[in-house]
Amino acid sequence: MLQAFRYRNDVLHAEGVSLSEVARDIGTPFYCYSTASIEHQYQQFSQSFTGNRVKICYSIKANSNLSVLGTFARLGAGADVVSGGELKRALTSGIQGSDVVFSGVGKTGDEMVDALEAGIMQFNVESEQELAQLAEIAKTRGVTAPVALRINPNVDAGTHDKITTGRVWDKFGIPWPEARDIYRLASNMPGLEMCGIAIHIGSQLTNLEPLEIAFRDVADAVSSLRDDGHNIKRVDLGGGLGIPYHFDPLTLEALDSSPSVESYAALISKATDNLDCDIILEPGRFLVGNAGVLISKVTLLKESRGRLFAVIDAAMNDLMRPALYGAFHEIVPVVSSSAEPEYLDVVGPICESSDVLAKGRRMARPDPGSLLAILSVGAYGAVMASSYNGRPIIPEVLVHNEEYSVVRPRSPIDEAMSIETLPPWLERSFELDTM
Fold this sequence. Notes:
single chain; 435 residues; alpha/beta; TIM Barrel; 9-stranded mixed beta sheet; 8-stranded parallel β-barrel; 30% helix; globular
């Protein structure tokens, strides 16, 4: 269910805010996020683990807007980051360094230094080379880096190939038993505290069976490592819990099923209750995916050899997922329509055939100038946007009850060009041409 998005008097609202009025005020396209939805998802997640030693570290790569991060900070969340930029965003938003996990296969030396200075909770290390570099930096600075090795269990998450991360041919993690040897090697490296083990097999999991297999492997690995004399006190089980993307266009009730957080929590308890470990979880999409919509205006309708195209002012540079993954996003009118549905393609103005937001979609024919809402874009939407085709980065709006605020303004083209400079030879040529 889309908790915070409902039709009121035939107009789509985010909480108590009319999305038609926001479009009138700031123009289109724009992203809109609901505070109530974010809070609901976080509380639903956290309450499922009441009494357990669980730390929820929101996966910032899903949506890194500072106002979204600030909302999570006030809720008590930590952060899972994969870059120095995300680390800085987490700290700026009010998340404490001691509540940050730094993941990713390609951390630079500078990023490691920044993370050590921030006193982060844990580095999730993904190779022997990374481990050696981190040990040297920590030793040189006279500090100890808390480390968990990320294990690759060779478990296929069964999701899209591009968001599956736990197979042996994926770039992520270290296969077992190679990881066991690296723990042994690391125990003699000054500057490191080998305190944990980590895993993450992919995103948008709607079947818990792959997670059950992976979690069981992790539990076995913890036992083996303790037998080897390692003090494993934390287990990072990653994220990946899926969300619905198909909705009834009138009621906005979910049409596809996804695992309940309660069943996910029960699975984790079954796998880890006997380990006497702190548990780190890294939800991203589950917390923000259905908390966001993308509002766009229909520019024109185009018919070609019996095919109908609704051209809108949002494009693949604003929402990359359909072009990148073939991802499905429900699209509904902002002002509800009783017109008979027909098949059409919803496309953007980018000069690419892949700039298609929906293909062969059965929906009411929209009028030019009308507004459409693309649903479930709170995760991997704005955060993946670009200025391709010279298009400005579009605004992000956060709603709270009856209020809304533009939390990232539209980026003027002149502003984007102002940070570019001409090399000296072009400056000289330009000066000669204007003399």
